[in-house]
TrEMBL record:
<dbReference type="GO" id="GO:0005737">
    <property type="term" value="C:cytoplasm"/>
</dbReference>
<dbReference type="GO" id="GO:0006790">
    <property type="term" value="P:sulfur compound metabolic process"/>
</dbReference>
<feature type="domain" description="TauD/TfdA-like">
    <location>
        <begin position="3"/>
        <end position="277"/>
    </location>
</feature>
<keyword id="KW-0479">Metal-binding</keyword>
<dbReference type="GO" id="GO:0000908">
    <property type="term" value="F:taurine dioxygenase activity"/>
</dbReference>
<keyword id="KW-0560">Oxidoreductase</keyword>
<dbReference type="GO" id="GO:0046872">
    <property type="term" value="F:metal ion binding"/>
</dbReference>
<protein>
    <submittedName>
        <fullName>Taurine dioxygenase</fullName>
    </submittedName>
</protein>
<dbReference type="InterPro" id="IPR051323">
    <property type="entry name" value="AtsK-like"/>
</dbReference>
<dbReference type="InterPro" id="IPR003819">
    <property type="entry name" value="TauD/TfdA-like"/>
</dbReference>
<dbReference type="InterPro" id="IPR042098">
    <property type="entry name" value="TauD-like_sf"/>
</dbReference>
<keyword id="KW-0408">Iron</keyword>
<dbReference type="Pfam" id="PF02668">
    <property type="entry name" value="TauD"/>
</dbReference>
<keyword id="KW-0223">Dioxygenase</keyword>
<comment type="similarity">
    <text>Belongs to the TfdA dioxygenase family.</text>
</comment>
Length: 285
């Protein structure tokens, strides 16, 4: 297996390897996992269904942990647990993955990561981008790092994906997934790296207003929301990003604990079919 970095910031392509082999080969799996922790998102081409079956797609993901179910997206009929993200003329490209986000921060335990395969894609367009949120944290000015140390933020499903849902559905979702609170800076459980952990699902800073300091005499609510917006914007910096051009049978594996991503919706009225196994993560600290 060869590992070729795609940018200075994030992402590497794995070549000369079939992901299916890593289901049964521990050494290969460990090598891929080490590359994932280092590069944060890995890409592979030509992982056809006859080489990497749907069952093996799920089995590879299950080496990382238990599979997550999705409240809205349907599962594949032959592979329950594999979520279909199919954008077709009957299910036209909508506007819910084209926001910089970290998967499932509206849950108590956001996803550890995902394994996403492209089944069908438009001739051009429909790329996905990822951002390195460890680097985004590192590059913050020292006084901002100090200011956000110990801050907690609230995250809501309704803040992003559900904004366009009918109210009764939205309320049902809220009952099932009450808002979750997570540290603004989380520690990666395996690498120990600090990660800037706010995104499109983050609604407000929970304990900023209680800070016992006056900040330029400003209203704390406004200052807190300015600070949150500034932190959320860090993922938008191209210096922290990689952009991946899909082909059928390309696969991306991302560490959701250290990244955000954005699926570019620029391909209507073309089709795009993706299949995704998400892995349950732990509670951020
Ligand atoms: O379709 C994609 O490229 C990614 C969509 C997404 O946000 C996800 O699978 O979590
Ligand atoms: Fe996502």
């Amino acid at each position: 297996m060869k590992i070729e970095p795609l940018t200075c910031a994030i992402g590497a392509e794995l070549t000369d390897v079939n992901l299916g082999d890593a289901v049964r080969d521990d050494g290969l799996f460990q090598e891929i996992y080490a590359a994932l922790l280092k590069h944060k998102v890995l890409f592979l081409r030509d992982q056809d269904l006859d080489k990497l079956s749907r069952r093996d797609h799920m089995a590879f993901a299950m080496r990382l942990g238990e599979l997550e179910t999705h409240p809205m997206a349907p599962s594949h009929p032959d592979a329950p647990g594999l979520v279909q993200i199919y954008k077709t003329p009957d299910n036209p490209p909508d506007r819910y993955e084209n926001a910089w986000h970290c998967d499932g921060t509206w849950r108590e335990t956001p996803a550890l990561g995902c394994v996403l395969r492209c089944i069908e894609c438009p001739p051009v367009g429909g790329d996905t981008m990822w951002a390195n949120m460890v680097l985004a944290y590192e590059m913050l000015p020292a006084h901002v790092k100090q200011e956000i140390d110990g801050l907690i933020a609230s995250h809501s499903f309704n803040a992003s994906f559900a904004a366009a849902m009918p109210q009764d559905k939205r309320l049902a979702m809220k009952a099932q997934y009450p808002d979750a609170e997570h540290p603004v800076v989380r520690t990666h459980p395996e690498t120990g790296e600090k990660v800037l952990f706010v995104n499109a699902f983050t609604t407000h800073l929970v304990n900023y207003h209680n800070a016992s300091r006056v900040r330029f005499g400003q209203d704390f609510n406004q200052a807190g929301s300015d600070l949150l917006q500034y932190l959320i914007r860090q993922a938008y910096n191209p210096e922290f990003q990689v952009r991946w051009r899909w082909k059928p049978n390309s696969v991306a594996i991302w560490d959701n604990r250290a990244t955000q991503h954005y699926a570019v919706m620029d391909y209507a009225p073309c089709h795009r079919k993706m299949e995704r196994a998400a892995i349950i993560g732990d509670k951020p600290f």
